[in-house]
Automatic annotation (TrEMBL):
Keywords: Transferase. This is Acetyl-CoA--acetoacetyl-CoA transferase subunit alpha. InterPro entries: 3-oxoacid_CoA-transf_A (IPR012792), CoA_trans_fam_I (IPR004165), CoA_transf_BS (IPR004163), NagB/RpiA_transferase-like (IPR037171). It comes from Hafnia paralvei. SMART domains: CoA_trans. GO terms for molecular function: CoA-transferase activity. The keyword Oxidoreductase does not apply. Belongs to the 3-oxoacid CoA-transferase subunit A family. It comes from the Bacteria. PROSITE patterns: COA_TRANSF_1.
Length: 221
């Protein structure tokens, strides 16, 4: 059995300029703060980040935006972070706004190996620009393509040494889905327990999807 716990310092070599990173959470709740801090400290830049929103200036992925590390954002909401809007308007950063349900489904398709899906959401609006339209049973749909990332950063409540994860309340948002759609998945856990302490039917994200776990305080040897 592989022990997937690593230190925060061991995470740094997995970051590089220009990578695409998915992050979990909603308004910063469920976005792993230690891993975002490690990204900042690593100095990587020109990132494309994918998640529900850009939280606030000083929470969630907000510090990545404020420090100029992000080249492009793919999200459904940016209104709570004025720095995101400022950089977008100034042409300093690209922003692709995607309806929330469409965004999570594009990520799910990326994780499931699907070629995309059809949705009526966005037909007749700016959302349809540059996208293929398909008429099915007399109804117009947009073909939405899957999203994948080089890296997914997940925030769990509890992990065991094999990487099995549980989440707490709304911090679960987006995290289980992005764990399916990235080449490398690193989780931050609030606590770590021995293998077997999490009942099988309580595991939300199985350890097979998780490459590494960072935990603070470190309680698993």
């Amino acid at each position: 059995m592989k022990n997937k716990k690593i230190s925060l310092a061991d995470v740094i070599p997995y970051f590089h300029d220009g990578m695409t990173i998915m992050f979990g959470g909603f308004m910063g709740v469920g976005t792993p703060p230690l891993l975002i801090e490690a990204l900042l400290e690593s100095g990587v830049k020109d990132l494309t980040i994918i998640g529900n929103d850009t939280a606030f200036v000083d929470t969630g992925v907000g510090p990545l935006i404020s420090s100029g590390r992000v080249k492009k954002v793919i999200a459904s909401h940016i209104g709570t972070n004025p720095e995101t809007g400022r950089r977008m308007i100034a042409g300093e950063m690209l922003v692709e706004l995607v309806p929330q349900g469409t965004l999570i489904e594009r990520i799910r398709c990326g994780g499931a190996g699907l070629g995309g899906f059809l949705t009526p959401t966005g037909v007749g609006t700016v959302v349809e620009e540059g996208k293929q339209k398909i008429v099915q049973n007399g109804v117009e749909y947009l073909l939405e393509l899957p999203l994948r990332a080089d890296l997914a950063l997940v925030h769990a409540h509890t992990a065991d040494c094999s990487g099995n994860l549980t989440y707490q309340l709304t911090a679960r948002n987006f995290n289980p889905i992005i764990a399916l759609a990235a080449d490398l998945v690193i989780a931050q856990a609030d606590q770590m327990v021995d293998v077997g302490s999490i009942l099988p039917d309580q595991v939300i994200t199985p350890g097979a999807l998780i490459d590494y776990v960072v935990v603070s305080p470190e309680v698993c040897s």
